[in-house]
Amino acid sequence: MTARTVGGSWNMKDKKVLKPANLSKWTMLRIGTAAVTEDAAFEQHCKALTAGLRSCGLKVDAPQIFPGPSIPALNAKEEEENKSILDKAFVDLKLRQIFEGCRDRNICMLLVVLSSPTPWIRERVKFWGDKTYGIHTSCVQMNKLRKQDPSYSANVALKVNLKLGGTNQCISPSDLGFLRHGKTMLVGIDVTHPAPGTTKGAPSIAGVVASIDANFGQWPGDISCQESKKEMVSNLDDMMEERLKCWISKNPGQRLENIVVYRDGKYNGQYGGILAHIICSLPGVSEGQYRTVRRDEVPAIRKACAKVFKDAAQPKLTFLVVGKNHHTRFYPTDKKQADQKHNCNIQNGTVVDRGITMQKGWDFYMAAHTALQGTVSPLSRSRSSADPMKTKPAHYVVLLDEINDTSKLGANDLEKITHSLCYLQGRATKAVSVCPPAYYAHLICLRARCYLADYISRNAGNDFDWNEAPWRSGVHDSLKNSMFYI
User: Fold this and answer.
1) For a 10 Å CB count at each end of the chain, is N or C smaller?
2) 285-308 burial, b for 16+ CB within 10 Å, e for fewer?
3) Distance between first and last Cα of the chain
4) How confident is the model at residue 339 (pLDDT cuts 50, 70, 90)?
5) Cα dihedral: 457, 438, 137, 239 (round 10)
């Protein structure tokens, strides 16, 4: 089924996901005041949600246990103060017991119904589900379920489908350039750092995600702690080796020819296949660290390829740094070529690759998305909203490009491919501002923060103790090659 985009967006009304997953062996967990909802009313809400999932194409069995386990609501005063140690200890104990029961029943998906957005409860749900018991979890809001809004059900369906190995959307092969041949692995790399004022010595977290299919719909990944505030990935060779092995296992007999890496920026082998190209994207690197990236991280990727493919042909590598922490903005000079909703903004898909770019090297600015609101316009000199809502382009710097050097592709080809990929963020029904590999790498790092959040909050003011830390790397074996982090 083809979706028509308007301003880089579409919706899921009367549409189904590309490759639906099977939601079987699942149940629901209610926490807080959601646990006291009458069973009859809750059953109606669940039926509406299930119908919404099925309307998006998912194959949904009846929940294995209904109405499922619950953690009783706190009284009003306690719920207002639900960050107390006593409440946390009670909820954490109950969560562990419930996850043990789900494991014994071979439950593979737990939908957690919350009465309100409560970060610490979500963090503990993810800790037990991802790290300890290997059970997928997805948190939903009770007030949203009551409304029985089809768009909310579709949003849940997109996330659940990705977690269970499905694919939500794809784009025309003609828009993928050399990626359409299915012999390229896209990679996203990110490093997140502890917030100011947190536990001294709290680790930075490195994340690597990589595509495993020709539609670029599934992106498993690896996560690991490393030295606090270190931007370069310490064990990149090991993490890349895992991603290469996963790609080969999902593409038996295929030859991987390219690797394309998107890195976040601040301003015949042993396994039965051959990888030919790798593309990586890496967020979080400043301009002064470009040389360090080429010196440290590019060789680490080559080392991983050499370990996996040994004497076989090595993949060609293209490496881009993606940045949004800059102050560059673009304005249309002609309203006819401006965004139709906010004519002070440029149209989505705008690319600037000359005039203000680097004198030496290859970089470009891209606004793949449509801004939600406007800003001060030089055309009208009026303000429609605050300036931070101005379309903020992503800045791509190409540090290495072996693929174009050998295949004689031009700059326009890589720019067009990058723009097309922005329509493949699986949980969004619009083009996103940053290419999905970098986007997903950031999400997996944020998920890893959940595993350390409780320990760090309990040890505020103390030094981080690696011997007591509840998590260092990876997730449960049953989830490690899935998009558990969505």
Assistant:
1) N
2) beeebbeebeeebbebbbebbeeb
3) 24
4) low
5) -80
